[in-house]
Protein: Flagellar hook protein FlgE
Amino acid sequence: MGLYGMMRTGVSGMAAQSNRLSTVADNIANSSTNGYKRAKAEFSSLVLPSSGGSYNSGGVTTSIRYEISKSGPLQYTTSGTDLAIEGGGFFVVQGTNGQPFLTRAGSFVPNAQGELVNAAGYKLMGYSYANGTPAVTANGYAGLEAVTIAQSELVATPSRNGKLAANLPASSTAVAAADLPSANAATAQYTHKSSLVAYDNLGGKQLLDVYMTKTGPDTWEMTVYDRADAAPNTSFPYANPPLATTTLTFDPTNGKLAGGSPTDISLTVPGGDALTIDLSDMTQLDTGFSVTGEVDGSAPYAIDSVEIAEDGTIFAQYADGSMRALYRIPLANVQSPDQLNVITGNVFSESADSGGVQLGFSGSGNLGKVVSGAVESSNVDIAQELTDMIEAQRNYTANSKSFQTGSELMELLVNLKR
Structure:
């Protein structure tokens, strides 16, 4: 077995170095591939049992491992949909067959359907805000869907919250009850008037007339009407009753709303949603009338750009400057990332040795943070690969010498009988 074992061991060594050279070639070829993880050949000895004075040479076996847990350097780009992870974790992506995978390759761009896909065609997965603020499913992929951003989609946001702050002059004269705006009579009088623009469910502008009328010492009536119901060329009477009315009471010692006074007024926007207007900053001071107000909501606008926050929230920014949360991207991790199965396209799947997938949001637990406008480069070091190549080449040559020597001795042995 001595010469045969020598030759077999030489072949084993050449095969092992060939595997090493294959990983080096793969690493060099993918040195510019985003999210690529370096492959390396790990060697272990193969020992055969020997007896007496005879030695049975064994050989060497190889196992291929990937440095998945080792991050590559971040390369910053000008695209807001390019994503990287600073720290641990993986993006969850979906293949064409609907199967979820993990990846660090975050160069995402919209496809024809508006889905964010990376260079290998895998779709980015996230939790939608369509049904409220999303919560993560810690131990599975349930609830995830492909992140879809249709640039041409028109979106209108109905008004739901507003704020009105005004100073109502303390020296104003009270109006008789029969002539208050809430009575909606042709003889109605008011102390001050302002207007607010709100948006209905279709994004249409609805003008709201706000009347502030002094009714007595430290008391004011606030009444809101739909401008569309106003009488032609005038105000009162409106075609319909007021949308809302309330009475504010002020503290005469400081001019602020009294403890028992309402601090907001609620109404339904015509053709729209319920609107609550915050009145907590109203005052009654001995100075002139002044007013400021704001109401949320927007007219129909197309998505102008996409912004992704550090916590993984994807915001759509519309042409009017308003922003709306669309999705939140989770990050995934496993107990042993280096034991994940490696699949074509720089994606990974869990294995029996890697442990189960755990999901969480950016920055939680052992997960890193999402970085927008950057991609993770390959973690391959070209200088190291060239060094390994030279070393593997020399070792291959040395093992071939072992095989060659065994072959020559075997030939000599065979020729002894001649």
Summary: The helical segments are 2-29, 382-415.
